[in-house]
Design brief:
By secondary structure, the chain is α/β, with parallel strands linked by helices. It has one domain: 2,3-Dihydroxybiphenyl 1,2-Dioxygenase, domain 1 (Roll), CATH 3.10.180. Helices cover about 15% and strands about 40% of the residues. The protein has 2 helices and 8 strands. The strands form 2 sheets. It has a 4-stranded mixed beta sheet, covered by helices on one side. Strands 5-8-7-6 form a 4-stranded mixed beta sheet, with helices on one face. A hairpin with a 4-residue loop joins strand 6 and strand 7. It starts with 12 loop residues before the first strand and ends in a 5-residue tail after the last strand.
Length: about 130
């Protein structure tokens, strides 16, 4: 009888940032994320989420990893709708929605430190 593998349930990408409290506010105000937790006084680690996507924010002083070197791909139903929302929130749009040759329509935003989130929607066959 074969053993059933343990199911992986969730994940959180870690972005290394210069200032956790400022980054938390950016994720909340500009990207529409909810603040899940803050750790430390002042905060040096935090968690934010939106729908099924979680991001942890770690102070550069906590790690040897470099600030602004992380990326995250997020898949959704309508990247153009999200783009319009993010424009209204004054998010840092690096690339507006654009079609990619591999069949995705992507929009890229940056956080305060240059980490990026690429939001993507699969192109319909008739596009």
């Amino acid at each position: 009888m074969s053993k059933i593998a343990t199911v992986l349930k969730e994940s959180a990408t870690v972005f290394v940032v210069k200032n956790v409290p400022e980054s938390v506010l950016y994720f909340r105000d500009a990207l529409g994320f909810k603040i899940e937790f803050l750790y430390g006084e002042p905060a040096n680690y935090a968690g934010v989420s939106r729908d099924n996507v979680a991001v942890h924010l770690e102070a550069a002083s906590n790690t040897s990893c470099q600030v602004g070197q992380t990326g995250l791909n997020v898949f959704l139903d309508d990247v153009d709708e999200l783009y319009r929302e993010l424009l209204g929130r004054n998010a840092r749009i690096s690339k507006p929605p654009h079609n990619r040759p591999w069949g995705m329509r992507n929009c890229v935003v940056a956080d305060l430190d240059g980490n990026y989130i690429c939001f993507g929607t699969p192109l319909r066959k008739d596009t």
